[in-house]
Design brief:
- By secondary structure, the chain is α/β, with parallel strands linked by helices.
- Among the domains are: 1-123 and 450-518, 3-Layer(aba) Sandwich (Rossmann fold), CATH 3.40.50; 175-338, no CATH class.
- It contains 17 helices and 15 strands.
- The protein has helices at 35-44, 72-81, 113-120, 138-149, 152-199, 205-217, 219-234, 240-253, 261-288, 293-313, 318-384, 424-427, 430-447, 464-477, 490-493, 520-532, 538-548, and strands spanning 2-10, 13-19, 24-29, 62-69, 89-96, 102-106, 109-111, 124-127, 391-402, 405-414, 422-423, 452-456, 482-486, 498-507, 510-517.
- The strands form three sheets. A six-stranded antiparallel beta sheet has the order 2-1-4-5-6-7. Strands 8-12-13-3-14-15 form a six-stranded mixed beta sheet. Strands 9-10-11 form a three-stranded antiparallel beta sheet.
- α4 (138-149) packs parallel to α13 (430-447), α6 (205-217) packs antiparallel against α10 and α8 (240-253) runs antiparallel to α9 (261-288).
- The longest helix is centred in the middle third of the chain and has 67 residues, at 318-384.
- The chain is elongated, with a radius of gyration of 46 Å.
Length: 549
């Protein structure tokens, strides 16, 4: 429930505050006084986009603030989702700077416009003059019927299942596309894989073969060099190892005469041992190097295969070639296994489809069951608001599964009891749409927990008895909801629990809009003026008193 609305520096409003009652609030005033401007300001705290051109004082900021009383259970999920502070009173504030920047706050915590719009859906239904166009839309018509069915848990379960169904459909399509693409490349990939598998290169093999070929190709030169060095170390007329041993012994003999001699002798001994080991290694190397023409031919062939594959795949090393082989293996195996995955997804999709169909049938049955009573009640209300010959019919046609079931819902209208029903968008006039929307909303309001409904001149185009009947509908709705209604009808104004008068006030050389809560006598006078003009007659005043009663 909207308890208080504060508006500063908006359009032709300098500063005003309005405290609303919890039942039927009526706003009246002359055309152009600013009634709809008040609702325009309210729409800003409900998430509408701001127009910086609407600032009265271009040097100051505009502030719109609404204080709402809400049941915590209604908005608890929203506050939990966005980590906002829950309090007994909900304060929404919108600020628009002179530079055109807009900010929104919920209980002094900044929020974005999307969050504000989402929150507003729990608080207010704002119906303006041109919202009757919504009545012509299929989505709105479905929402009306579902509101009367009032089984949100059933719809939520269906939509969750449909979301999974759609996800599996997308996965299935994606996998089929991948399979088709993979099948086109499968033969070529298998050829490449067979080529690499037949080559069967081990890790680092090409590099090792390249090193081996260099040794085999220079075997004679290597053996000559190694033999010569080994001979110089061990078998020459004065072998290097023997000379080094003699030098070490000579230095060791000086140990009695020089303190550093033992350390030098020890180092020479270490050099001798190391050179002995090197000599042994050279001998071993020499024994291993053998010229082998057959091996050279085999290595050359193996390297030729390796170099060809490296060039073909545009890589430099055996490791990279083996990585390509692994990818090709995965690709070929994946393509061959896709049929199994497709079969599994198709089976899952069929199970989901069957389950969804069952749920959709349940939803359809509930809608069909609700359609009859809905038609009867709307038609009764239409007669009440001055359209006794009008008839509404809810057409429910089954089709394919969609996010809301399987039904296409369309409201058909017959204005003259002709038996010729046609879509509302084709046959209903503006005045008929306006009254029809009121009748529908009065029914929906009983099924929806929305605390506040706002009507901006929904009574346009009606008068007399029809207006009186509309006032009864408004009065009945106000028993369970807060109603805020801008009207020109005295019959509706007479039913108000609180009557606000909007007027222009000239002060300090500028004209601004103000709102005043009328006393009982002021109400009678204003309603009398609505009946008979600026200077109401005694009969008009008496009639106004009757209406206020």
């Amino acid at each position: 429930m909207l308890q208080k609305l504060t508006i500063k520096n908006y359009a032709i409003i300098d500063h005003l505050e309005v405290d609303f009652s919890g039942n039927l609030n009526v706003i009246t005033g002359e055309t152009g006084a600013g009634k709809s401007i008040v609702l325009g300001a309210l729409s800003l705290i409900l998430g509408e986009r701001a127009d910086p051109g609407m600032l009265l004082d271009k040097e100051a900021k505009c502030v719109i603030e609404g204080a709402f009383k809400v049941k915590k259970s209604q908005v608890a999920a929203f506050f939990q989702q966005y980590e906002l502070d829950m309090e007994d009173q909900l304060i929404i504030r919108r600020e628009i700077s002179a530079a055109g920047k807009s900010r929104a706050f919920v209980n002094d915590t900044p929020v974005n416009l999307n969050q504000l719009t989402e929150l507003s859906q729990y608080l207010v239904d704002l119906h303006q003059q041109f919202d009757t166009l919504e009545l012509e839309k299929s989505d709105f018509q479905r929402e009306v019927l579902d509101a009367l069915v009032n089984q949100p848990a059933v719809m939520q379960q269906y939509q969750q299942q449909f979301q999974r169904y759609s996800q599996v459909q997308r996965q299935l399509k994606q996998l089929k596309d991948q399979r088709d693409s993979a099948n086109k490349e499968l033969d070529y990939n298998k050829f490449l894989l067979d080529e690499l598998s037949d080559a069967a290169f081990a890790s680092n093999e090409i590099e090792e073969l390249d090193a081996e070929l260099k040794v085999l190709s220079h075997a004679e030169e290597i053996r000559n060099t190694l033999s010569r060095v080994y001979f110089q170390l061990n078998e020459d007329e004065q072998p290097i190892l023997q000379q080094l041993k003699q030098i070490q012994s000579s230095i060791q003999a000086l140990a009695a005469f020089h303190k550093d001699a033992p350390a030098v002798a020890q180092r020479l001994q270490s050099a001798y041992v190391e050179l002995q080991d090197i000599s042994s290694e050279i001998g071993h190397m020499n024994d291993q190097v053998q010229f082998d023409g057959a091996r050279i031919e085999l290595v050359n062939e193996r390297l030729s295969t390796g170099y060809k594959l490296l060039k073909k795949h545009g890589v430099q090393t055996t490791a990279e070639l083996l990585q390509i082989q692994e990818k090709l293996t995965n690709s070929v195996e994946g393509a061959l296994n896709m049929d199994e995955k497709l079969a599994a997804l198709e089976a899952e999709l069929e199970v989901l489809r069957a389950d969804l169909q069952q749920q959709a049938d349940t939803i359809t049955a509930a809608r069909v069951a609700a359609a009859g009573p809905f038609e009867e009640k709307v038609n009764a209300l239409l007669a009440q608001v001055g359209m006794p010959n009008a008839r509404l019919k809810a057409s429910i046609a089954q089709g394919g599964l969609n996010p809301y079931g399987q039904d296409t819902i369309e409201f058909l209208f017959d204005a003259n009891k002709s038996g010729q029903f046609a879509p509302i968008r084709k046959v209903a006039s503006g005045g008929e749409l306006s009254r029809l929307m009121l009748c529908i909303k009065s029914l929906v309001a009983r099924s929806v927990a929305l605390p506040t409904l706002i009507f901006d001149e929904i009574d346009t185009g009606i008068s007399g008895e029809a207006a009186r009947q509309v006032s009864f509908i408004m009065e009945d709705m106000a028993r369970g909801h807060q109603i805020i209604c801008i009207t020109h009808q005295p019959q509706i104004a007479g039913k108000a629990d609180a009557h606000y008068f909007v007027f222009k006030d000239a002060r300090d050389g500028k004209v601004t809009t103000n709102v005043r809560l009328l006393t009982r006598e002021e109400r009678i006078n204003k309603i009398a003026q609505m009946l008979s003009g600026e200077k109401p007659t005694a009969a008009a005043l008496e009639n106004a008193r009757e209406l206020v009663k």
